[in-house]
Predict the structure.
Amino acid sequence: MTLNIVEYPDRKLKEKSVNVELFDQDLYDLLDGMYNVMMESNGIGLAAIQVAHAKRILILSIPDEESEQSKEDLIEMINPVITNKSGECVYQEGCLSVPSFYEDIIRFESISVNYQDRDGNTKIIEADGLLSIAIQHEMDHLEGILFIDRLSYSRRKKFEKEYKRMQKEKKKP
Ligand code: Y12
Ligand code: CO
């Protein structure tokens, strides 16, 4: 399945995603297509809405100590729910749907998440560090929330100005 990344300000990104009920070949094809487009785009996390599928699906490929992203470490989360959260941390986030823009965002330091894998098996993960931040960023996408929606009013205004300028630059021959 060939997929394209939906970019801000596309309204599709504001959609709330719905639970996955069927763990079938269509789901496997979507997950595999998401993995391919994420890796081709140098991403470490992707939600299904970013490829125009409003389903509660996210994938994560967190680099290891050697900065390598190996397929064995890929995490596929379907219908994720945060059951516990604690602490606070700040990280400069980026998003494949908001290219070339990075901003400090406050997240919970540690989280516990219940989810299903591609075969519908229930899993629990305890996450902190980059994994915890990435899960929270991708789970926001499932609610139609982008990391730029978490900026203060003044930072958001600055972003809109910079982003518009960058889009104009991109269009120049
Ligand atoms: C911490 C914070 C945020 C996340 C969410 C996942 N975000 C990404 O995977 C972002 C990827 C990204 C990749 C880019 O492309 C390159 O670096 C070549 C990029 O740059 C441009 O678009 C020019 C921006 C974002 C996980 C963990
Ligand atoms: Co994102």
Observations:
- The beta strands are 45-47, 57-60, 75-86, 89-93, 103-107, 110-116, 122-127.
- The mean pLDDT is 97.
